[in-house]
Amino acid sequence: MASDEPKAKKPKLSEEEKPEPPPKENAVKISTNSLFGMGNPLLDICAVVDKDFLDKYSLKPNDQILAEAKHKELFEELVKKFKVEYYAGGATQNSIKIAQWMIQEPHKVGTFFGCIGKDKFGEILKQKAEEVHVDAHYYEQDEEPTGTCAACITGDNRSLVANLAAANCYKKDKHLDLEENWKLVEKAKVYYIAGFFLTVSLESILKVAKHASENNKLFCMNLSAPFICQFFKDNLMQVMPYVDVLFGNETEAAAFAKEQDFDTKDIKEIVRKAQALPKDNKKRQRVVVITQGKDETVMAQSDKIETFPVVKTDPKYIVDTNGAGDAFVGGFLSELVQEKPLDQCVKAAHYAANVIIQRAGCSFPEKPDFK
């Protein structure tokens, strides 16, 4: 998001007149729509809350859950009782947004599909996507309102409660299968879908994942939350053979290992075993990337396990850790789509996450300062 400082007006150049930005060193020329994301577009409602609020709604300080009947009042109370901020959110959309910010030019490298309502929150999401130059194509319906996510922040923890509403109404036949939309899928060379979308449209994920696998393109997925590994295990494992890059954090990795009977709590062993799970496209060995908050990131690639220290940040500068995981993925994807080496992808991921935690919501300065 651009800063609010007034800027001198420059004469606008037409797209044809604009000079081509110099290519980044060793970068592959990126075309529009080369990064594709599909997921749950949500309007984040963020607030710093107290322990009593978490206890009242049986929330863990650091968790992601889907809203149930008992959380109905939570959204209203959050707005009434605390100072809230609204941000365009949803895990996949955040990551695509961050990747686009890291890339800068050309605009609309990132494409995003998801379902919204025909309402004010839906209009906000459309406007926010446009502001950050993401090519969002929403399936709009009027049966359900646009989804929201309460981000309840205590210290450097965040507890997320998602009310999917419209996001849960995405339909493969009503949107993904339409010729003009599928053409955008075919234009991409890197795909990213957060595990959260497994609760919405498995058939849409499988169609995209199989397309990537059959065309030797990169399909990336995120474990996203312990509940996905536990209660949507069957859906997750139907997609796993097509996953080229698997992301997760240490809590999700532990839940995944337990559900898969890996019989280990050691992160390095978990990434090794996740990497070795059956894979459809034999031309690419799976890469597994697990973050551990302020501790080192662990990555399995080829036959080696590597660790990468994160960028150290003084706790007094940490404003909001909500979005750190999404930013990590966004940074990683921004280099992956340019065919950079994987260690460079992790470096960009750490940079993006570090920027995001020092700002409220999943927001960012006008330009990145990543070398």
TrEMBL record:
Reactions that this protein is recorded to catalyse: adenosine + ATP = AMP + ADP + H(+)
Named cofactor requirement(s): Mg(2+)
EC number(s) on file: 2.7.1.20
Any Gene Ontology biological process: AMP salvage
Cofactor binding, per record: Binds 3 Mg(2+) ions per subunit.
InterPro entries in alphabetical order: Adenokinase, Carboh/pur_kinase_PfkB_CS, PfkB_dom, Ribokinase-like
Primary role: ATP dependent phosphorylation of adenosine and other related nucleoside analogs to monophosphate derivatives.
UniProt protein name: Adenosine kinase
Lineage of the organism: Eukaryota, Metazoa, Chordata, Craniata, Vertebrata
